[in-house]
Amino acid sequence: MYSFNYHNPSSQQEAEELLASTDSPSLLAGGQTLLPTLKHRLAEPSDLIDLKGISGLSGIHKENNSIVIGATTTHCAVSENELVARHIPALSKLASGIGDQQVRHRGTIGGSVANNDPAADYPAGCIGLGATIRTNRREIDADDFFVDLFETALEEDEMILAVSFPIPQQAAYIKFPNPASRYALVGVMLSKTGGDVRVAVTGAGSAGVFRDSHIEAILGKNFSAEAIDGSGIDEADISADIHASAEYRKHLIGEMARRAVEAASGG
Ligand SMILES: Cc1cc2nc3c(=O)[nH]c(=O)nc-3n(C[C@H](O)[C@H](O)[C@H](O)COP(=O)(O)OP(=O)(O)OC[C@H]3O[C@@H](n4cnc5c(N)ncnc54)[C@H](O)[C@@H]3O)c2cc1C
């Protein structure tokens, strides 16, 4: 680990001033990704700005027809929250399936979304539910936020404040987890609101999370598991590694989508 200055601001304004006044700052949420990165000397920030002391960044509330989750809210808090369970149970399930207990107690929604790991659950949750990422500068549609592997639309000194999820009529998240890390080999978040069907896939795309427009079109006409005839994505655009081939991942997308339709339909 290289040396760095540590800051523990108690307000958003203080954090923004530190972002603007330090050489190469890095925001610190639960440290679940950032601390191992620092320990392996893969990053050398001059200053770490810890967000945990900013009380306004944590918590969950309902705003009109949306559930709004503060950036430093932990996965555990989301999985146990009564509002989330009542209005978007698919999101409770997503959060409860992340990593292990320690990761869920430290890891945050803001850190996960900012990190945009290609096998992480929240990117699929955000796109599949049509979420909006709120930052200290603007609001960004999830469809525009996740750009490429570990790359987002966030600018260098931009900070996520919250993620807003519109409440869907039906939704489900189904993941085929890597048995060691629990990251998604393939995960599918599916939602239906009126005639609008969204199907977001994590774990499989060689450029990270994506929408499967083929499955969306099928389900838009006939919202049933039997209607799904597989994923529309080209195998060349699917990742392959020691855990699974592209062919197997493509098969899993169709299968997870079928199970998600059944779960969303109460099956
Ligand atoms: C063993 C293990 C298993 C895991 N399994 C899963 C899994 O199954 N599914 C899954 O989805 N994830 C998994 N994770 C990831 C975990 O869920 C964390 O959410 C993720 O590592 C981010 O961690 P964090 O919230 O502590 O953020 P940090 O590590 O503190 O930060 C991560 C990055 O986000 C930036 N950042 C943090 N907060 C903000 C903000 N508010 N605004 C802008 N940038 C910000 C930081 O600067 C840093 O670049 C796993 C992690 C581990 C260690």
Automatic annotation (TrEMBL):
InterPro entries for the chain: CO_DH_flav_C, CO_DH_flav_C_dom_sf, Diverse_Substr_Oxidored, FAD-bd_PCMH, FAD-bd_PCMH-like_sf, FAD-bd_PCMH_sub1, FAD-bd_PCMH_sub2, Mopterin_DH_FAD-bd
Source species taxonomy: Bacteria, Pseudomonadati, Pseudomonadota, Alphaproteobacteria, Rhodobacterales
Chain segments annotated as coiled-coil in the UniProt record: none
Flavoprotein in keyword set: yes
Keyword match Lipoprotein: no
SMART domains membership: CO_deh_flav_C
Name the record gives this protein: Xanthine dehydrogenase family protein subunit M
Alphabetic keyword roster: FAD, Flavoprotein, Oxidoreductase
One Pfam family recorded for the sequence: CO_deh_flav_C
Domain named FAD-binding PCMH-type: residues: 1-170
